[in-house]
């Protein structure tokens, strides 16, 4: 698949306050240095560290990313993370301080309410203006004009100067223009949040159609995770101008953004380092296995022989002692919880080293990141092991996320024919 956008070591520096040097003499020094191909003597842009300086800050810091044609990429991050700066650079509104960008195709941008519109022109005239900016000929715009006006749902106001439009009307017309004019890449910022719920749903459906049927590349910024999840197939997370996470599964990206502390770790086993001791029940090891008792924290959704293993030392046996496990999503919602007394099988706890082994139905889980936690104690009394002391993250791999529902059961069907 061909690359629509290639970003290499992209950085953007902004000065605080005035952007000049403050004196003609210093401005001339800067001009001469740049003419000679040397560094600006009054700039800190050559600093190796990307921390904020007294004169400014780095809005983007060493971003490298490849986006393929037809990708729908969600760009997530807190306010000030650099999302809008990245889109403005891609839209050629501002230039990067460092790095290179290669773009294949024309870009239609929807960054702010009214961007690219002239207030004195009517809605119809602004459609032609935007098309001309994209390099389209008048006959091409004429062919799409009726479709654009119908989609915007502001037919009665299309010949009214846009300075009289509400913010919602601005967004409707601006999105209709960006979505229907011939461009290979569509960039949409949080501006869609201005529209009402029905139009947001309509806009997301249109972008889905553009990507699937026309192969258009979509870059979408939003703080509404539901909108990102419905539209995008992959995503990135920006933090303080840096690219800290990227994944081809948008669910994994959203989970990482919502719960960064549960990031998958290299170690696949919890081991007691002496931080948990109890006179009754002391856990020693906690891990997941697959196949031939192979320890793992990544599983295919087709894996059936997956087990959770708890090794613990019991000093005193209590008749009401129990152990429980819970599988949860990274948003802390519970998939299921199981207790040792749920089983009809008889079990006996003995003093000394005990091994608990539970077969887990992980093949029912949809792809994504989860975690499993364990706690033990005397039933209806104070817990021996604090509830969330032992947490083990794991990941389910497999292309099952497109099917609706919370789980992915493979059920036995019985069919009888007369």
3D structure, described in words:
- Residues 44-51 have low confidence and may be disordered.
- A hairpin with a 3-residue loop joins strand 11 (281-290) and strand 12.
- The strands form four sheets. This protein has a six-stranded mixed beta sheet, with helices on both faces.
- The chain is built from eight helices and 19 strands.
- The chain is elongated.
- The two termini are 50 Å apart.
- It is of the alpha/beta class.
- 31% of the residues are buried.
Write the layout of secondary structure elements.
Blueprint: E1 3-15, H1 24-35, E2 56-68, E3 72-76, H2 83-90, E4 98-103, E5 107-110, H3 123-133, H4 138-152, H5 167-180, E6 185-188, H6 197-214, E7 217-221, H7 225-231, E8 234-239, E9 242-247, H8 250-258, E10 269-271, E11 281-290, E12 294-295, E13 298-300, E14 306-314, E15 321-329, E16 334-339, E17 352-359, E18 368-378, E19 390-397
Parallel strand pairs: 3-7, 3-8, 5-6, 6-7, 13-19
Antiparallel strand pairs: 1-2, 1-4, 8-9, 10-11, 11-12, 11-14, 14-17, 15-16, 15-18, 18-19
Helix pairs in contact: 3-4, 3-5, 4-5, 5-6
């Amino acid at each position: 698949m061909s690359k629509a956008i290639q970003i290499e070591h992209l950085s953007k520096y902004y000065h605080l306050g005035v952007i000049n040097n403050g004196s003609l003499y210093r401005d001339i020094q800067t001009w001469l240095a740049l003419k000679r191909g040397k560094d600006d003597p009054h700039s800190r842009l050559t600093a190796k560290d990307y921390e904020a300086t007294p004169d400014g800050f780095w809005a983007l810091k060493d971003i490298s990313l490849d986006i393929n044609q037809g990708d729908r990429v969600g760009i997530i991050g807190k306010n000030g993370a650099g999302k809008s700066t990245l889109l403005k650079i891609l839209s050629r509104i501002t230039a990067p301080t460092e790095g290179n960008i290669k773009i294949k195709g024309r870009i239609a941008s929807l960054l702010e309410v009214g961007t690219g519109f002239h207030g004195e022109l009517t809605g119809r005239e602004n459609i032609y203006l935007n098309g001309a900016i994209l390099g389209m000929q008048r006959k091409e715009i004429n062919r799409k004009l009726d479709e654009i006006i119908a989609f915007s749902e502001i037919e009665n106001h299309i010949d009214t100067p846009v300075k009289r439009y509400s913010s919602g009307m601005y967004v409707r017309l601006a999105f209709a223009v960006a979505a229907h004019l011939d461009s290979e890449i569509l960039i949409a910022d949080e501006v869609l949040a201005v529209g009402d719920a029905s139009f947001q749903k309509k806009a997301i459906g249109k972008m889905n159609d553009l990507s699937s049927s026309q192969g258009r590349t979509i870059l979408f910024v939003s703080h509404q995770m539901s909108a990102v999840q419905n539209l995008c197939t992959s995503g990135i997370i920006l933090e303080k101008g840096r690219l800290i996470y990227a994944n081809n599964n948008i669910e994994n990206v959203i989970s990482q953004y919502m719960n960064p502390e549960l990031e998958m770790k290299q170690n696949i086993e919890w081991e007691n380092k002496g931080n948990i001791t109890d006179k009754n029940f002391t856990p020693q090891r906690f891990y997941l296995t697959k196949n031939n008792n192979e320890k793992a924290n990544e599983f295919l959704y087709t894996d059936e022989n997956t087990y959770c293993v708890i090794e613990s030392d019991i000093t005193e046996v209590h008749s009401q002692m129990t152990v429980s496990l819970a599988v949860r999503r990274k948003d802390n919602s519970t998939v299921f919880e199981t207790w040792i007394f749920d089983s009809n099988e008889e079990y006996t706890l003995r003093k000394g080293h005990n091994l608990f082994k539970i077969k887990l139905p992980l093949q029912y889980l949809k792809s994504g990141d989860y975690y499993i936690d364990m706690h033990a104690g005397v039933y209806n009394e104070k817990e021996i092991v604090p509830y969330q002391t032992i947490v083990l993250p794991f990941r389910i791999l497999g292309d099952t996320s497109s099917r609706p529902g919370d789980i992915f059961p493979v059920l036995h069907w019985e069919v009888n024919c007369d």
